[in-house]
Each structure stands twice: as C-alpha cells, then as structure tokens.
Amino acid sequence: MKSPASFKKAAAWALPYWTRGPAGRETPHDLFRVLYFGWLVAFTLKVLGSAWDVSWHFKWLRDDLAPPHLLNSVGTAIVVALTVIHGYTGYGVDKAALRLIQWGTGVFLVAVPLDLINHRINGLDITSWSPSHMMLYVGTFFMIAGVIRGWFMGAPPGRERTVVLGAFFTFFLENVHFPEQHQEYGILSLGAWDNKVVYAEQILLRFAADQMGRPVDRTMITGFTLPVPDALYPVYAVIVGLSVLVVARALIGRFGSATLVAATYVGFRTVIWPLLTFTGFPPSAVPFFLIAAGLLVDVAFLVRIPAVRAVLGAVVVTAGAYGALMAQSAAMGPVYGWIKGQDGLLGAPPLATATAVWAGLGLLVSWLAIEWIVSRRRPREAGEPAPRVPVAAPAAT
C-alpha cells in the first residue's frame, strides 16, 4: 500500500500538467506513457469484468450490482477520468483521436442507463445481441479506436510501441468478438442439458421460461442458449473479427502481428476458462479458429500488391476460418458425450457452412477498404510512420 508521501509525490508530478490546451499539444514523454498505461489498466479491468459477466449471466439471474458489473465499472471510471484529462489538457491525442475517445465514452455512458431501463421494462435480456448491448460495444469500439490512434501517432518507434499497440488491438478484438460469447457459452450449456447437467440456477431458468411463455424444456433452453440464427456466428466472426486482425497487421507492420493478437486473446480466454469453471461457473467454447485465421492474415500480407493481397487473403482466410471452425465443430460429438459438471472446452456454435461465400465477400469488401485507407494515410511506404502527436523526447538520465 502506498504511503501518503508517495501520493504527495505523484500529485506534485501531475499537477503542473493540469493546464487547459488544444488537442495535439506537445506532450512530455513520461506523461504520454502514464496516460496510455492508464488506458491499459482500464481496459484490463473492463475485460476481466466482461469475461466474468457472460459466465455469470448463464448461471445467475441478472443483478445490477453483480460483482462483474462492479469490476467493469471500476475500469469505466478510469476511462472517464482519462477522457476528461485528454479533453481538458489536450495531451497525448490529436483532434481525431480525442473525438473518437470522447464519442465512444459518451455513447457507452448513454448506453448504460438505457440498458438498465431495458431490463426494468423487458426483464431478462435473452441475448447479448440486444440494441442496448450493441450500444455498449459500439461505444467501446470508438473508444479503443481513439486510443489506438493516439498511441500509433504519438509513441516513438521501438519495441514498447509495437507491444502496446498489439495489446490495444487485443482489447479491440475482445470487444468486437464479445457478443459471440453468447453462442460459445450457449452451445455447451445446451450440450450439458442434453446430458442431464444444468448450469443455470432454477430461478434463472424459471424466469426465462416465464418470459418465453414456455415450460422449462429443451425448446426453451435452446431459445435461451442459442437465440440468434446459426449463420450469425461465422459470418460476424469472419467479417468483423478478422477485419480487426487485418487492421492490426497493417498498422503494426510486422509479420506475426495478427497471429499474436489473436493468440493473446484466445490465450486469455483459455486461462480464464478454468478460473471460472473451477469456481462453479459454466464453461464456454474457445474460439481457437482465430489463431489459424490470424496466421493466414499474416501470410496474406507477404503479397506485396494490396489489391491482390485483399482478394487472395479474403478467399484463403475465409476458407481457413471456416475449416478451423469445422474442426472445432467436429469435436462437439465427443464433447456432448463426456461433458459432465464443469468439463467442456472444445466445441463451437452450429456452423452454417453455406454462409462462407457471403462471409468471404464481406471480408473482401472490408479488406479492400482497409487497404485503401491505410495507403492514403500512411506517411511513408516503408518503415515506421512518423508520429504526428508531438511527444517530447525522454529526459536524459
């Protein structure tokens, strides 16, 4: 625990920076690092809270003050503080980054009471794809996009710049993939029901059944665990999730970037899985296919011509993602057979293979757009882009 002297020292360091200024003003190097490492802490808390939140809602009836919500709220409080600091002082961001952060935080904060009102009016929210939840994801999307831009434009070249940029893209991937966890938890909960194992508390099942106007039977459980069309999971994962990996590879600019971002996210999901299940919470399928897709994105970037890279990449990456999903789906038979208690790690939501064409076309359009935007905004063809948020050099020691 820090002593009062430590807090006084920190305040003495920070107070001179609390001056009003426009976005894009020159930022001392140490202040720039503190601000963006603060963002890392905020997003870490929010991710931990959200990861716990999905599992919580597959076991307990919703509660506004549930521990996952409180943990997420601590991260949100730090987000609000950092947004105010950037907006008031102008340090660490250009105008575009600041607007993205402010709009993202604003949308998120508006979505929170709307989601509470939605639950008061409609009761249990059966799906993570509800409008109020989508507003939370969209707000976080713009928020992290602004942070990525601020760091990308201001961090000096080097290993720290690359690693932190990769971390921010991992948080970005987690946010866009978050609603897909409904199906990832749902498919194993449905499998458990088929094997006479029930993860959810009876009060939650009864509440959901009353809301659907059905008894607690398999039809009701299916509606609770897999409430959206089967096509949504693979199409969304390929178009939206893999587009994040394409942007990550394009901006980080190093072979293996997309693979490492995907592997870090999947690794987090793999580590958090036993921590949750061993404490009595339901298991989820883990999107291992993202690692294979990330590797294919990296391989596609070995092609030098952007348009050719986008066409070949969209075809190969879509086929690879669907192939990896099919491999996970093939494990569902054994999973259904031996799932007991809290066992069950492999598996994937139902795979509508006929949607691969539409997913591939969507990824192609997105990839071409990304290539066009990056080519227009990259300051130079090769090497690290020159920072455009002025950051003072580190003080000599």
From TrEMBL:
Q: Which residues form a coiled coil?
A: none
Protein's UniProt keywords contain S-adenosyl-L-methionine = no
Q: Which UniProt keywords apply?
A: Membrane, Transmembrane, Transmembrane helix
Is Zinc-finger one of the keywords UniProt gives this record?
Answer: no
Locate the transmembrane regions by residue number.
36-58, 70-90, 96-114, 134-152, 233-252, 285-303, 310-331, 351-370
Q: What is this protein called?
A: Uncharacterized protein
